[in-house]
Amino acid sequence: MISGNGTRRSYLPAVGLLAVGAIVWFGLNQSAPYGPLVLGWIAPPTALAVSALAVHRTASMAGLPAGARRFWNGIAIVCVSSAVGLVLQAVYALTGHGQTGGKVPPPVGLLYLFGVGYTVWVLLRIPIGSRSRSEWARLWLDIATVMLGTAVLMWYVGFSPLLTHGSPHVVWVPLSVGVVCLAGVFAAIKIVLAGAGPIDPGALRLLGAGLVVGGVSAGTATLVANQPYLVPAQVSVPLIAVLIVLAGERQGRASATDRRQSEHPPRPQVSFLPYAAVAATDVLLVVAVLNPDDSRRYLVVAGAITITALVVVRQMLAFNDNARLVDRLRQQEDQLRHQASHDALTRLANRGLFAERLNAALDHRARASGAGANGAGPGGGLTVLLIDLDDFKSINDTLGHTVGDRVLTAVGERIRHCVRPEDTVARLGGDEFAVLLRQSWPSAIDGIAERILGSLSRPVVVDGYELLVPASMGVADAQPGDDPEALLRNADIAMYAAKDTGKAGFVRYAPSMATRILEHARLGAQLRQALDDGQLHLLYQPVVRLADGHVIGMEALVRWRHPSHGLIAPADFIPTAERTGLIVPLGRWVLREACRQKAMWRKAYGDLSPATVGVNVSGRQLQESRFADDVADAVHEAGLEPHHLVLEVTETAVLTGGQSLETLHALRAFGVRLALDDFGTGQSSLGLIRTCPVHILKLDKSFVADHGAGADQQRAVATAVAQIANALGLDAVAEGIEGPEQAERMQELGYRLGQGYHLARPGRSEQIDQILAGNATAR
């Protein structure tokens, strides 16, 4: 029903009134007929019809799952067929067509059987989720407990009197209906206990109660055998209709709640049906035992004993499952604890566990020292090794992170096999590892460090690649008063000192290192301030044509004039810029300033201005993925063509490959000219010419000096470089020309271009303006 304001009205008052009326009429007619007999047949079919409307409305709710919709439509069909059966039974009873002694006509009995059987079929079609073998065992024990209790109740109240006092001709339909109702109770109990997906468990419990009422009612036909004008269905059916309407409305409320709170799934609830079955059987047992003449007590006692056995087995299974659950939870807790304290990739201790063990070791050392032991303890001191893989980033850049991860795993295994079982090996993050050594003497520590570095010096084979992963290591011994942070910091300082001394080695921490690191940090902060305050400026050194001294290009050189320390040499602040990452913004500023100055010279002197301006680029800049974009922005902002800019890179800067080579190829494609600076001093000069997309080779000044014991070899290298450049179509520039003899000799060896103090000293842009103006006047 729909009210005027659009809200749904409940059918419960209607079926409730019908049920109350049926009970009152049935009670009044116990001793003798009271009023027209047709009154007793109005309530049952009418109540079922109303309940059919109620559950059909439930099935029509918006948002109800298809399975639930199908189920409630099936219940509506059962209500309708049963109502039709009741109408036919009423016609038979009121017209006297063969109805005697409560006999149910065959057509009516078939309709009842269809209704109850269809109910069972609808219930059994509800899907049940998967579960473990133990869960299935507990489920079937619960079902058996409830079914046995229900069967004992139905047998005691209905079937036993029916079979004892009724004739087979009369009892076949009630008995059949009762058995089918019991099957329906089985289906409902199974679904209630196992879960019914979209069907509300409370609604199913109400329907199961209705089936129990129907089964008991079918078995009580013999109780009114002497009153043929009374039929138990006249009372039980309205009560069943009330339960059906309640079930439908409960489903409606549950569906609405699920739509509002779908993000909060309900927690599993414990079903009390098995306990209710036990309680009902116990009540029957008390009733039966109190009546010594009741022959049914033996079956009730047998049922109670069986139910008790089922409950005992069920509890034993539950205890066993709980024990397994506790074990599984304990294992999961141990696994989670291990995952929280270990690196997922290498299975080594992570930073947290390492810090925990380091802190515990330091506490133990402090207690031992306080108890009178010497500072090193009875078996040696406490030492931390900090290991950082050299140039590991190039492996990730060139071969991918999957290969890099496998390399890290192999490195972790090698380190672990180089230490003792009582030592702790950890991966602190990235390509950084740490080792905690307890009770070790300096000689043993040096041996472990050398063993680790020796192990890592051997190639690591991953996916067919033989990869070298050398490492730098810092060694720090715990001193009185050290905390974990200080000890790790000291090891980190020593590790960077190892990198500064050439990598692939280890350095033991000394207090003087901290002072040097502090100076670097202070210089880095001042350099950051210098970038902001404009303390940096550029000098330009000409690149000239050796034949006539004509300036054909300029190389930009950065200088720093500190307000209180005066001029700071590039050799002092460039390494700091590299270490702190300030080389990236510093290089960006040099690039833009050099391009801006080149544009000014081009505007002032036209074709007489230097054809190119060169800027030195570090390996750190080449590894920046946006560096090529920064170059393009600087060129375009200055209004230059790409070929006006020369980027000078060292051999060591491009030896890492990966992102550096990708950046160089992108710059060449853009049109920038590339020069290989200090050529001839690196490890793979000839190989680099083949892989690095350069236009210019700048011969290192060490091959220009031509003096000392190695003069012949220097001249041979200089000659070979000139010939290689000529053969490959590259320009060759001789650096560091300090005198006229060197300039003449380089020209004789095949060099057309040169750079050095003899040709032109570096100068500010104003000084270069004077040179260019003089050249313009001479022309």
Can you put this structure into words, describing what you see?
The protein has 779 residues and is α/β, with parallel strands linked by helices. It folds into three domains: 12-262 and 271-321, no CATH class; 351-509, Reverse transcriptase/Diguanylate cyclase domain (Alpha-Beta Plaits, 2-Layer Sandwich); 521-772, Alpha-Beta Barrel (TIM Barrel). Helix content is 60%, strand content 12%. β14 (696-699), α24 (711-728) and β15 form a beta-alpha-beta unit. α5 runs antiparallel to α10, α16 packs across α17 (570-580) and α18 runs parallel beside α20 (627-638). The longest helix has 45 residues, at 297-341. The radius of gyration is 48 Å and the shape is elongated.
Mean pLDDT across residues = 82
| Strand arrangement, major sheet | 8-9-11-12-13-14-15-16
User: Count of helical segments?
Assistant: 26
Our Rg estimate from Cα atoms comes to 48 Å
Percent strand equals 5-15%
Helical coverage, percent range: 55-70%
> What number of structural domains do the residues give?
3
* Gross geometry: elongated
- Contiguous low-pLDDT stretches (5 residues minimum) are 1-6, 260-269, 373-379
Give the biggest sheet: 8 strands, mixed, barrel
**Helix/strand structural class:** alpha/beta
Q: Care to count the β-strands?
A: 16
Separation, N- and C-terminal Cα atoms: 108 Å
